[in-house]
Write a structure and sequence with these properties.
The protein starts with a strand and ends with a strand. The chain is 23% helix and 24% strand. It is globular, with a radius of gyration of 16 Å. A six-stranded mixed sheet has the order 3-4-5-6-7-8, covered by helices on one side. Strands 1-2 form a two-stranded parallel sheet. The N terminus is likely disordered. The chain is α/β, with parallel strands linked by helices. InterPro entries: FBD (IPR006566), FBL13/AtMIF1-like (IPR050232). This is FBD domain-containing protein.
């Protein structure tokens, strides 16, 4: 198994699983992705990976995240604003989907990050885990977050539903 993973000049990727930033080395060239799907735990290590992928994917328009089980999540963790400019957040990212959402604090922090930093975000989709019991409370909290995009629409769904209800 390779010790380092070098990601460079990617145009289309079906699936990527990266355990931590210690295994990730990004080339100097931008990653040419317009859509990215990540399965992750919402903790500090995985958020560093996601932030690096966002930073080096300036054309990214669609981000689909699958929130993995919460075992081992760091307690009292917060998503920090990026130190450097992330081009896709400023001018390209239009859609973020978080699936298997359970309403945990770390997931809510992740949504707060995108609402605060994604300037042209058009759609934020939250697909609840089938057993999520905090859905209404978490939905109300997320709707109150400040956002930089004034056109963002919130879409909520349960995994087994075939339709979404939306809030603007």
């Amino acid at each position: 198994m390779p010790k380092d993973i070098i990601i460079e000049n990617l145009i289309s990727v079906e699936s990527v699983w990266i355990a931590s930033t210690s295994a990730l080395k990004l080339g100097k060239a931008s990653i040419l992705l317009k859509s990215l799907k990540l399965e992750l735990r919402v903790d500090e290590d995985f958020m560093q990976v996601m932030t690096l992928l966002l930073k080096y994917s300036p054309n990214l328009e669609v981000l689909k995240l699958w929130s993995d089980e919460n075992e081992g999540w760091t307690k009292n963790w917060q998503m920090h604003d990026p130190d450097d400019s992330i081009v896709c957040l400023e001018s390209h990212l239009k859609s973020v989907c978080l699936s298997n959402f359970k309403g945990e604090e770390n997931e809510i922090e992740l949504l707060r990050f995108f609402l605060k930093n994604a300037r042209i975000l058009e759609r934020l989709t939250i697909v609840w885990a089938s057993y999520a019991d905090k859905s209404e409370e978490a939905s109300e909290e997320v709707l109150k977050f400040p956002r930089t995009s004034h056109v963002v629409t919130f879409l909520y769904a349960k995994r087994e539903q075939k339709f979404l209800w939306l809030v603007r």
